[in-house]
Amino acid sequence: MLVSPVVYCVVFRYMPMYGVIMAFKDFNIVKGIWNSSWAGFKHFEYIFGLSKFRQVFANTVVISFMLLILRLGRMMEAGFEQIFILYHPAVYRVADILGTYVYRIGITEGRFSMATAVGLFRSVINLVLLVSANNIARAIKEQGIY
Length: 146
Known about the structure:
Blueprint: H1 3-14, E1 25-28, H2 32-35, E2 36-38, H3 42-49, H4 51-72, H5 80-85, H6 92-95, H7 98-108, H8 112-141
Antiparallel strand pairs: 1-2
C-alpha cells in the first residue's frame, strides 16, 4: 500500500537532486556528472563575486517585493470562479465569499445597492492592504510601487 507513494517520492523528489551535483563539479559533457572533476564552491564564489550578479539579484528582490505588494491588493479575491462552479443554496452558509455574496444579492436577488456596498467594502480593504504593504516596503527598502 505504501509502494506507490514511496516510488513517487523517490522519482519526483529525490532523483532530481542528482542534477544538483553539477553545481559543485566542473561538468564535462563527455565525462558525465560522476566522472567530471569536483569543483566544490568555486562556481558560487565566482557568481557572488560578480557585480552584475549583485545587480541582477537586487533587481529580482525589488521586483519580487513589488509583485508581492500588487498581489496583496487582490488578497480579498478568494477565487470567485472556483466557488461559483460548485455554488448551490445548500452550501451558501459555508461557501459564500464576498465575491459570490455580491453576485447572489446583486444579480439573483436584485439588491444592487447592497451588492455595491459590499463590493466597495472589499475594494477598500484591498486598498488598505496595498497601501500598508507599500509603506512597509518603502520603510525597509526605500522603494515601493509609488
